[in-house]
Design a protein that fits this description.
Blueprint (H helix, E strand, L loop, with lengths): L1 H4 L13 H8 L13 E3 L8 E3 L6 H9 L4
Antiparallel strand pairs: 1-2
Length: 72
């Protein structure tokens, strides 16, 4: 994955997130409004476990990204 990190700045802050981790998060709920998927977004910031709803709901994921400067 290191070759991709040279091209995409979003990946610079990603920790050890696996495909399985992302699948599990997608099966959960928004941490703010508790709405269930399918339109959930997981924060990719190392050591941040935030999962928020997308723009088809309240869009808590964008609010989290803007307030924390984390990538989704």
């Amino acid at each position: 994955m290191s070759a991709f990190r040279n091209h995409c700045p979003h990946l610079d802050s990603v920790g050890e997130i696996t495909k399985e981790d992302l699948i599990q998060k997608s099966l959960g709920t928004c941490q703010d409004c508790k709405v269930q998927g399918p339109n959930l977004w997981a924060c990719l910031e190392n050591r941040c476990s935030y999962v928020g709803c997308g723009e088809s709901q309240v869009d808590h994921s964008t609010i989290h990204s803007q307030e924390t400067k984390h990538y989704l």
